[in-house]
Amino acid sequence: MTTFRNKDYDANGRPTSSMSMRQLAVVMIILNINYGRLHCSYTMDIDEPHTYTPPKHYFQTSSFDETELDDEALARNPLDRGPYFDISASRNITALVGNTAYLNCRVRNLGNRTVSWIRHRDLHLLTVGKATYTSDQRYQSVHNPQLDDWSLKVLYPQQRDSGVYECQISTTPPVGYSMTLSVVEPLTTIVGGPDLYIDTGSTVNLTCIVQHLPEPPPLIQWTHNGEEINYDSPRGGVSVITEKGDITTSYLLIQRARGSDTGKYTCLPSTANPITVHVHVLNGEHPAAIQRGWQTRSNCALLTMLFLLLMALSGVRGTGVR
Description:
The strands form four sheets. The chain has a six-stranded mixed β-sheet with strand order 2-10-9-4-5-6, with no helix packed on it. It has a five-stranded mixed β-sheet with strand order 12-19-18-14-15, with no helix packed on it. It is an alpha+beta fold. The protein is 22% helix and 34% strand. It has helices at 17-47, 71-76, 287-321; strands spanning 84-85, 92-96, 101-108, 115-119, 124-128, 131-132, 139-144, 149-154, 163-169, 175-184, 187-190, 195-199, 204-211, 220-224, 227-228, 238-243, 248-254, 263-269, 275-282. 13% of the residues are buried. The protein is elongated, with a radius of gyration of 48 Å. The protein is built from three helices and 19 strands.
């Protein structure tokens, strides 16, 4: 048998040095090629442009510190947020029946938009700009350009005018700011009325309470039988104390009550309805006795009327017989 030997192997079958060197070179070339491919792929991934688009509701902010911008840059890029409401004013307005009410709406950056007022009760358009869009001319628009105010003016308001009103800006879509108007009827009462019974020599304390006013009444007067009470009169012992607040209370004090103090006393707030009470200064007589006396007199009057009616009927019958 003839034996053929490869020149790359020795007699013992081991690879020669030339074989090892060639194989090593091939391996190195392959490694270099693969490394280059990996390197190129990695480089392309880094340099590839970012194509991710955030959703519309995503709130984006700038990554730089705006304090680093100079004044010139800020002047070139002013903040423009469009029209918006100044919500510093109260949403709740209380007005007195018959007294003009104002609902104030302050709008910033209005631009070329318009301001309208809508009544929520019936979705009625009341005003647009300065024009009134309702047949009820009590509603008017008042504009103060210095303060950016668009007020709804309600003349002679009544309790039925109470409710929610909306100030609306003509953006797309429109934006609104709601306010609540409460039109109140002031209430004046005197504790213990309409009749008070006081013993002679005791102190008369008349307490007048005024409620449902936007602000306390500037003045409360007291009258006795239609005449204003003089607290400096020679009679003496007559004074008044008034406590003002959300509920205003006025106390009329009359010391050492006497017969002449009997009569009609009226509390007259300057911005509310008056109220009257009748004071009876008793001379040892119990109020029940007075009421029984009134009842007896009423019964007597009724009996007298019945008697006269019977007499009249008897006369008519007598005439008919003849």
